[in-house]
Amino acid sequence: MARTVATAMKPDLFTIAAIALLALAIPARAQDAAPPDPQARLDALLARYQAAEDKSDAAAALRSDFEALAKANPGTAAGLSARLWLLEQCWWLRTRDSEQPMERAAAAMLDTILAEYPDHPLLARIADTHFVFADELKAPLFERLLASSKHAEVRASMILRLGMLERRSKDPAVRERAARRFQQLLADYADVPRQATTYGAMADALLHPHTDLAIGKAAPEIVGTDTDGRAMKLSGFRGKVVVLDFWGFW
Amino acid sequence: MIPHERSLVAAMKDKPFALVGVNSEASLDEYRRLAAAERVTWPSFFDGGSTEGPIATKWGVRGWPTVYVLDKKGVIRFVDLRDEELTKVVEQLLAEDG
Question: What is the ipTM of this complex?
Answer without folding.
Answer: 0.98
